[in-house]
Amino acid sequence: MALLRAAAAALRRRARVAALPAISPFPHTHGQTSSPSPSPGPVSNPAARRHLITLSRRSRCLRPPSASAAASSHYIDRILLPSSFSHPLSTSSRDKDTDRDKEESIPPLPPASWVERLLPEAARPYAMLARLDKPIGTWLLAWPCMWSITIAAMPGKLPDLKMLALFGCGAVLLRGAGCTVNDLLDRDIDNKVERTKSRPFASGALTPSQGVAFLGAQLLLGLGILLQLNNFSRVLGASSLLLVFSYPLMKRFTFWPQAYLGLTFNWGALLGWAAIRGSLDPAIILPLYTAGICWTLVYDTIYAHQDKEDDLKVGVKSTALRFGDSTKQWISAFGAASIGSLALSGYNAELAWPYYPLLTAAAAHLAWQISTVDLSDRADCNRKFVSNKWFGALVSSGILLGRLAS
């Protein structure tokens, strides 16, 4: 194809320099006598000579003899040598294919969250810091609270709706405060991890002093919720702050930060019952708390597999690194322990039979997660992690129906 283009360019150049219409492959016969076309000169390349002959023959067949040299040039450029023609030896075609491959290899940007669409620009970094654009963490923190409040309700009665609302707001605030503390302590690590380098501190969108001020506002609002509970619940709730502030440091010292997160995230299993009953019943609440911790070890180990390569480079620890190729065996054991503890808690709380079919459905959901997750695929790990909101909903529905029917 490059030879064809070169031959066409040579024809047009000779036509302009010599001003000889006979160079055109279309002889002029309208009232004129055709003169023999002079030879365009020796062509050393046999392939180029053949292309010139072919062009001349085709043009005599397809164009009327009255066409001008300009028409011939148009014919060669637009018909015989179209710019979109692809040739395996064409450099431009290879470049286009390379560009197209590069475009296809770039993953599409995720859709804009409601934070980016609705909030003012100045407020977006704070909302991102509190993870308001990723509500899954709030759900995972709220479900143990809802389980505990519902199981503490009197038999045949609905749970306290005011308490459910207070604990829901508290979950948003406490999760946001935990994320702020985590990002403040990990800001030098987050900028080295692909998934976290766009966080507000790591990217420079917020300064540490702004983060501390925002943390103070979150804790102040949380205190307002805590003061509406009984005295026992206030002490119990305030003691959870020790876990919240120390959790981000655990990944530096132990391969079990996910277990420590379980202690922190499931504190609501203790607090919800205490807010309703004013005390703790170990036979019901301790199995419920244990179930939440084991559940956290399942979902957060799956989540940690997204960052295992970066964690190795940075030097932080996780159960994903601790379990390695045995991860599925470990989280299967934790999943079984979670379901068993939930069954024991429901039995001790004298929940009616509707609780157990829904607990079976929750167990099936957990088994589906563990059996189908591709631990080498970050996107699949994230999908399975996010699906745990449905596990929490199934357990909560079972407790509600079991309490109403008891």
UniProtKB/TrEMBL annotation:
One of its GO terms (molecular function) is transferase activity, transferring alkyl or aryl (other than methyl) groups. GO terms for cellular component: mitochondrial inner membrane. GO terms for biological process: isoprenoid biosynthetic process; ubiquinone biosynthetic process. It is found in: Membrane; Mitochondrion inner membrane. Keywords: Isoprene biosynthesis, Membrane, Mitochondrion, Mitochondrion inner membrane, Transferase, Transmembrane, Transmembrane helix, Ubiquinone biosynthesis. It comes from the Eukaryota. Residues 93-105 have a biased composition (Basic and acidic residues). It catalyses: 4-hydroxybenzoate + (2E)-geranyl diphosphate = 3-geranyl-4-hydroxybenzoate + diphosphate; an all-trans-polyprenyl diphosphate + 4-hydroxybenzoate = a 4-hydroxy-3-(all-trans-polyprenyl)benzoate + diphosphate. Pathway: Cofactor biosynthesis; ubiquinone biosynthesis. It holds the Pfam family UbiA. InterPro entries: HB_polyprenyltransferase-like, Prenyltransferase, UbiA_prenyltransferase, UbiA_prenylTrfase_CS, UbiA_sf. Its cofactor is Mg(2+). Catalyzes the prenylation of para-hydroxybenzoate (PHB) with an all-trans polyprenyl group. Mediates the second step in the final reaction sequence of coenzyme Q (CoQ) biosynthesis, which is the condensation of the polyisoprenoid side chain with PHB, generating the first membrane-bound Q intermediate. This is 4-hydroxybenzoate polyprenyltransferase, mitochondrial. It comes from Triticum aestivum (Wheat).
